[in-house]
Amino acid sequence: MALDKELLEILVCPKCKGDLVYKEAEYFLICNACKLKYPIQDDIPVMLIDKAIKIDKS
Amino acid sequence: MDHNETIRREFTHQAESFGKPGLTLSSQEYLAWMVDILPLNPEFRVLDVATGTGHLSRAIAPHVSQVVAIDMTPKMLEKAKEEAAKAGLGNIIFEEGDAAALPYQDNSFDMVVSRLAIHHFEKPQLQLREMIRVCKTDHAVGIIDLLSPSDQSVIETYNRLERMRDASHTLALTKDQLAEAMEAAGLSISGMDSRDIQVDFGLWAEMTATDPHTKGEISKELEQELRGGAKTGMRPFMQDGKLKFLHTWCVAIGIKK
β-strands B237-239, B92-97: how paired? Predict the structure, then answer.
Protein backbone atom coordinates (compact mmCIF):
# COMPACT_ATOMS: atom_id res chain seq x y z
CA MET A 1 0.00 0.00 0.00
CA ALA A 2 1.34 3.43 -0.94
CA LEU A 3 1.48 6.24 1.57
CA ASP A 4 -1.50 8.56 1.74
CA LYS A 5 -0.88 11.43 -0.71
CA GLU A 6 -2.40 14.10 1.51
CA LEU A 7 -0.33 12.90 4.42
CA LEU A 8 2.83 13.11 2.34
CA GLU A 9 2.07 16.80 1.78
CA ILE A 10 2.18 17.57 5.50
CA LEU A 11 5.00 15.19 6.51
CA VAL A 12 8.29 16.91 7.27
CA CYS A 13 11.60 15.93 8.82
CA PRO A 14 11.04 15.80 12.61
CA LYS A 15 14.53 17.28 13.10
CA CYS A 16 14.62 20.34 10.81
CA LYS A 17 10.90 20.45 9.82
CA GLY A 18 12.07 20.63 6.21
CA ASP A 19 10.62 18.85 3.18
CA LEU A 20 11.11 15.14 2.60
CA VAL A 21 11.60 13.24 -0.63
CA TYR A 22 9.54 10.05 -0.90
CA LYS A 23 11.49 7.14 -2.40
CA GLU A 24 8.55 4.83 -2.94
CA ALA A 25 10.53 1.93 -4.38
CA GLU A 26 13.06 2.01 -1.53
CA TYR A 27 10.55 2.52 1.30
CA PHE A 28 12.30 5.62 2.58
CA LEU A 29 11.52 9.27 3.22
CA ILE A 30 14.64 11.33 2.78
CA CYS A 31 15.67 14.63 4.33
CA ASN A 32 18.44 16.01 2.14
CA ALA A 33 19.19 18.86 4.56
CA CYS A 34 19.84 16.55 7.55
CA LYS A 35 21.12 13.70 5.35
CA LEU A 36 18.75 11.29 7.04
CA LYS A 37 16.63 8.45 5.66
CA TYR A 38 13.40 7.61 7.51
CA PRO A 39 12.35 4.01 6.80
CA ILE A 40 8.80 2.94 6.01
CA GLN A 41 8.04 -0.40 7.69
CA ASP A 42 4.76 -2.24 7.06
CA ASP A 43 3.33 0.98 5.55
CA ILE A 44 4.19 2.88 8.75
CA PRO A 45 6.68 5.72 8.32
CA VAL A 46 9.20 5.58 11.15
CA MET A 47 9.69 9.29 11.81
CA LEU A 48 12.08 8.99 14.73
CA ILE A 49 15.37 10.87 14.57
CA ASP A 50 17.14 8.15 16.58
CA LYS A 51 15.98 5.44 14.18
CA ALA A 52 16.79 7.38 10.99
CA ILE A 53 19.67 6.19 8.85
CA LYS A 54 22.56 8.55 8.10
CA ILE A 55 23.16 9.04 4.39
CA ASP A 56 26.82 8.69 3.41
CA LYS A 57 28.27 11.94 2.23
CA SER A 58 30.43 10.17 -0.35
CA MET B 1 18.21 4.67 30.74
CA ASP B 2 16.91 7.42 28.45
CA HIS B 3 13.24 8.20 29.29
CA ASN B 4 12.10 7.46 25.71
CA GLU B 5 13.66 4.01 26.09
CA THR B 6 11.81 3.55 29.40
CA ILE B 7 8.55 4.44 27.62
CA ARG B 8 9.24 2.02 24.77
CA ARG B 9 10.21 -0.76 27.19
CA GLU B 10 7.12 -0.28 29.40
CA PHE B 11 4.68 -0.01 26.50
CA THR B 12 6.17 -2.87 24.52
CA HIS B 13 5.19 -5.26 27.30
CA GLN B 14 1.89 -3.45 27.96
CA ALA B 15 0.70 -3.63 24.32
CA GLU B 16 -1.02 -7.01 24.59
CA SER B 17 -2.87 -6.17 27.81
CA PHE B 18 -4.27 -2.85 26.54
CA GLY B 19 -7.23 -4.61 24.94
CA LYS B 20 -8.22 -6.69 27.98
CA PRO B 21 -11.82 -6.31 29.19
CA GLY B 22 -12.46 -4.36 32.37
CA LEU B 23 -9.63 -1.86 31.91
CA THR B 24 -10.51 1.79 32.32
CA LEU B 25 -8.46 2.79 29.29
CA SER B 26 -10.63 0.72 26.94
CA SER B 27 -13.96 1.59 28.60
CA GLN B 28 -16.47 2.56 25.92
CA GLU B 29 -18.32 4.70 28.45
CA TYR B 30 -15.29 6.90 29.08
CA LEU B 31 -14.38 7.03 25.39
CA ALA B 32 -17.95 8.17 24.59
CA TRP B 33 -17.59 10.91 27.24
CA MET B 34 -14.40 12.15 25.52
CA VAL B 35 -15.87 12.01 22.01
CA ASP B 36 -18.88 13.93 23.28
CA ILE B 37 -16.73 16.75 24.66
CA LEU B 38 -14.22 17.06 21.80
CA PRO B 39 -15.50 19.52 19.16
CA LEU B 40 -15.26 17.01 16.27
CA ASN B 41 -16.40 17.70 12.72
CA PRO B 42 -16.89 15.29 9.78
CA GLU B 43 -14.50 17.42 7.69
CA PHE B 44 -11.65 17.27 10.21
CA ARG B 45 -8.25 15.67 9.96
CA VAL B 46 -7.28 14.90 13.56
CA LEU B 47 -3.89 14.01 15.00
CA ASP B 48 -3.87 11.59 17.94
CA VAL B 49 -0.53 11.98 19.73
CA ALA B 50 0.83 8.96 21.65
CA THR B 51 -2.11 6.89 20.44
CA GLY B 52 -0.96 3.67 22.15
CA THR B 53 -3.16 0.87 20.85
CA GLY B 54 -5.45 3.48 19.30
CA HIS B 55 -8.54 3.42 21.55
CA LEU B 56 -9.21 7.15 21.16
CA SER B 57 -8.40 7.11 17.42
CA ARG B 58 -10.99 4.38 16.86
CA ALA B 59 -13.58 6.25 18.95
CA ILE B 60 -12.99 9.46 16.98
CA ALA B 61 -12.63 7.97 13.47
CA PRO B 62 -16.37 7.56 12.71
CA HIS B 63 -16.92 11.28 13.44
CA VAL B 64 -14.14 12.82 11.33
CA SER B 65 -12.61 12.61 7.86
CA GLN B 66 -9.23 11.21 8.90
CA VAL B 67 -7.24 10.38 12.01
CA VAL B 68 -3.45 10.33 11.98
CA ALA B 69 -2.30 8.23 14.94
CA ILE B 70 1.31 8.54 16.08
CA ASP B 71 3.22 6.65 18.77
CA MET B 72 6.86 5.85 19.50
CA THR B 73 6.36 2.17 20.43
CA PRO B 74 6.14 -0.13 17.36
CA LYS B 75 4.38 -2.90 19.31
CA MET B 76 1.58 -0.48 20.26
CA LEU B 77 1.13 0.63 16.64
CA GLU B 78 1.06 -2.96 15.43
CA LYS B 79 -1.82 -3.66 17.83
CA ALA B 80 -3.56 -0.37 16.93
CA LYS B 81 -3.39 -1.18 13.22
CA GLU B 82 -4.77 -4.67 13.82
CA GLU B 83 -7.66 -3.33 15.93
CA ALA B 84 -8.55 -0.62 13.37
CA ALA B 85 -8.70 -3.27 10.64
CA LYS B 86 -10.90 -5.48 12.84
CA ALA B 87 -13.25 -2.52 13.43
CA GLY B 88 -13.38 -1.85 9.67
CA LEU B 89 -12.04 1.68 10.10
CA GLY B 90 -10.19 2.70 6.97
CA ASN B 91 -9.58 6.34 7.84
CA ILE B 92 -6.84 5.93 10.45
CA ILE B 93 -3.23 6.34 9.36
CA PHE B 94 -0.42 5.19 11.64
CA GLU B 95 3.03 6.63 12.13
CA GLU B 96 5.93 5.97 14.44
CA GLY B 97 7.13 9.21 15.93
CA ASP B 98 8.03 11.21 19.01
CA ALA B 99 5.52 13.68 20.44
CA ALA B 100 8.42 16.01 21.22
CA ALA B 101 9.48 16.17 17.55
CA LEU B 102 6.35 15.75 15.43
CA PRO B 103 7.02 15.14 11.72
CA TYR B 104 4.36 17.55 10.40
CA GLN B 105 4.25 21.03 8.95
CA ASP B 106 2.88 23.86 11.08
CA ASN B 107 -0.94 24.24 11.04
CA SER B 108 -1.55 20.80 9.48
CA PHE B 109 -4.44 19.51 11.61
CA ASP B 110 -7.99 20.63 12.36
CA MET B 111 -7.65 19.17 15.83
CA VAL B 112 -4.91 17.56 17.90
CA VAL B 113 -5.72 15.20 20.76
CA SER B 114 -3.67 13.22 23.23
CA ARG B 115 -4.96 10.82 25.84
CA LEU B 116 -3.24 9.52 28.97
CA ALA B 117 0.17 10.61 27.73
CA ILE B 118 1.12 13.88 29.44
CA HIS B 119 1.91 12.07 32.72
CA HIS B 120 4.57 10.02 30.87
CA PHE B 121 6.51 13.05 29.62
CA GLU B 122 9.51 14.50 31.44
CA LYS B 123 8.94 18.02 30.09
CA PRO B 124 5.34 18.16 28.86
CA GLN B 125 5.84 21.73 27.60
CA LEU B 126 7.89 20.28 24.72
CA GLN B 127 5.11 17.98 23.59
CA LEU B 128 2.38 20.56 24.17
CA ARG B 129 4.22 23.13 22.04
CA GLU B 130 4.62 20.59 19.25
CA MET B 131 0.92 19.70 19.37
CA ILE B 132 0.04 23.39 19.17
CA ARG B 133 2.49 24.03 16.34
CA VAL B 134 0.87 21.41 14.08
CA CYS B 135 -2.69 22.48 14.95
CA LYS B 136 -4.45 25.17 12.91
CA THR B 137 -4.97 28.58 14.53
CA ASP B 138 -8.36 28.97 16.27
CA HIS B 139 -8.66 25.17 16.37
CA ALA B 140 -8.71 22.89 19.39
CA VAL B 141 -6.06 20.84 21.15
CA GLY B 142 -7.72 18.28 23.44
CA ILE B 143 -5.66 16.93 26.32
CA ILE B 144 -7.03 14.00 28.27
CA ASP B 145 -5.04 12.86 31.26
CA LEU B 146 -4.88 11.58 34.78
CA LEU B 147 -4.92 14.35 37.37
CA SER B 148 -2.96 14.45 40.59
CA PRO B 149 -5.04 15.09 43.69
CA SER B 150 -5.19 18.83 44.42
CA ASP B 151 -4.30 18.18 48.10
CA GLN B 152 -0.61 19.20 48.21
CA SER B 153 0.15 16.80 51.08
CA VAL B 154 -0.49 13.69 48.95
CA ILE B 155 0.80 14.70 45.50
CA GLU B 156 4.23 13.20 46.10
CA THR B 157 2.93 9.93 47.53
CA TYR B 158 0.35 9.59 44.77
CA ASN B 159 2.93 10.01 42.01
CA ARG B 160 5.44 7.79 43.80
CA LEU B 161 2.92 4.92 43.89
CA GLU B 162 2.11 5.45 40.19
CA ARG B 163 5.85 5.35 39.37
CA MET B 164 6.35 2.17 41.43
CA ARG B 165 3.75 0.50 39.26
CA ASP B 166 4.95 1.99 35.95
CA ALA B 167 8.46 3.43 35.60
CA SER B 168 7.37 5.52 32.60
CA HIS B 169 5.00 7.58 34.78
CA THR B 170 6.71 10.92 35.44
CA LEU B 171 4.21 13.27 37.04
CA ALA B 172 0.45 13.69 36.84
CA LEU B 173 -0.50 17.37 37.03
CA THR B 174 -3.24 18.85 39.15
CA LYS B 175 -6.18 20.39 37.30
CA ASP B 176 -4.76 23.89 37.83
CA GLN B 177 -1.27 22.84 36.74
CA LEU B 178 -2.65 21.25 33.56
CA ALA B 179 -4.55 24.43 32.70
CA GLU B 180 -1.45 26.53 33.44
CA ALA B 181 0.77 24.28 31.30
CA MET B 182 -1.65 24.46 28.38
CA GLU B 183 -1.98 28.25 28.66
CA ALA B 184 1.80 28.67 28.96
CA ALA B 185 2.29 26.62 25.79
CA GLY B 186 -0.02 28.93 23.83
CA LEU B 187 -3.60 27.74 24.28
CA SER B 188 -6.66 29.50 25.57
CA ILE B 189 -8.62 27.04 27.74
CA SER B 190 -12.18 26.73 26.47
CA GLY B 191 -13.33 23.92 28.75
CA MET B 192 -12.24 21.35 31.30
CA ASP B 193 -14.35 18.44 32.45
CA SER B 194 -13.18 15.90 34.97
CA ARG B 195 -14.62 12.77 36.49
CA ASP B 196 -13.61 10.12 38.96
CA ILE B 197 -12.91 6.71 37.49
CA GLN B 198 -13.08 3.52 39.55
CA VAL B 199 -10.01 1.36 39.06
CA ASP B 200 -9.65 -2.30 40.00
CA PHE B 201 -6.27 -2.54 41.72
CA GLY B 202 -5.55 -6.09 40.51
CA LEU B 203 -6.25 -5.28 36.84
CA TRP B 204 -4.30 -2.03 37.12
CA ALA B 205 -1.17 -3.81 38.35
CA GLU B 206 -1.65 -6.66 35.88
CA MET B 207 -1.78 -4.26 32.93
CA THR B 208 1.74 -3.05 33.59
CA ALA B 209 2.98 -6.49 34.66
CA THR B 210 4.16 -4.92 37.91
CA ASP B 211 6.24 -7.46 39.82
CA PRO B 212 4.49 -9.16 42.76
CA HIS B 213 6.77 -7.58 45.38
CA THR B 214 6.11 -4.01 44.18
CA LYS B 215 2.41 -4.76 43.76
CA GLY B 216 2.39 -5.94 47.37
CA GLU B 217 4.18 -2.79 48.54
CA ILE B 218 1.62 -0.55 46.81
CA SER B 219 -1.37 -2.50 48.08
CA LYS B 220 0.08 -2.39 51.61
CA GLU B 221 -0.01 1.42 51.53
CA LEU B 222 -3.58 1.45 50.18
CA GLU B 223 -4.71 -1.06 52.82
CA GLN B 224 -3.05 0.99 55.56
CA GLU B 225 -5.03 4.01 54.38
CA LEU B 226 -8.22 1.93 54.49
CA ARG B 227 -7.44 1.17 58.13
CA GLY B 228 -7.07 4.85 58.89
CA GLY B 229 -3.39 5.25 58.00
CA ALA B 230 -1.70 7.95 55.96
CA LYS B 231 -3.50 9.24 52.89
CA THR B 232 -2.00 8.18 49.56
CA GLY B 233 -4.11 10.30 47.23
CA MET B 234 -5.37 7.08 45.59
CA ARG B 235 -8.69 7.10 47.51
CA PRO B 236 -8.85 3.31 48.02
CA PHE B 237 -12.03 1.40 48.84
CA MET B 238 -13.24 -2.19 48.90
CA GLN B 239 -15.99 -3.37 46.57
CA ASP B 240 -17.18 -6.97 46.23
CA GLY B 241 -14.13 -8.08 48.17
CA LYS B 242 -11.77 -6.35 45.73
CA LEU B 243 -9.37 -3.52 46.38
CA LYS B 244 -10.23 -0.55 44.21
CA PHE B 245 -9.28 3.12 44.07
CA LEU B 246 -10.18 6.29 42.22
CA HIS B 247 -8.38 8.05 39.40
CA THR B 248 -9.48 11.46 38.23
CA TRP B 249 -9.46 11.92 34.46
CA CYS B 250 -9.78 15.28 32.81
CA VAL B 251 -10.67 16.36 29.28
CA ALA B 252 -9.18 19.80 28.73
CA ILE B 253 -9.81 21.72 25.53
CA GLY B 254 -7.54 24.60 24.56
CA ILE B 255 -7.85 26.80 21.49
CA LYS B 256 -4.70 27.74 19.59
CA LYS B 257 -4.33 31.50 19.67
Answer: unpaired
The shortest C-alpha distance from A40 to chain B (Å) reads: 9
Please answer yes or no on whether B94 and A44 come within 8 Å at the CB atom.
yes
Q: Give SS3 for A22.
A: strand
Residue-wise pLDDT for B47-104, tens only, equals 999 999 999 999 999 999 999 999 999 999 999 999 999 999 999 999 999 999 999 9
Separation in Å, CA of B82 to nearest CA in chain A: 12
Q: Does B211 touch chain A (CB under 8 A)?
A: no
Phi, psi at B71, each rounded to 5°: -155, 155
What is the H or E stretch that residue B35 is in?
helix B28-37
Eight-class DSSP state of B64: S
pTM, two decimal places: 0.93
Nearest CA in chain B to A42: B78
Distance CA A15, CA B100 (A): 10
Residue A14 and residue B98: Cβ atoms within 8 Å? yes
Does the CB of B82 have a partner CB in chain A at under 8 Å? Answer: no
pLDDT band at B175 (very low <50, low <70, confident <90, very high): very high
Contacts of A15 in chain B (CB under 8 A): 101
CATH says B3-150+167-198+247-256 is which class?
alpha beta
- Domain spans of chain B? 3-150+167-198+247-256
ipTM: 0.94
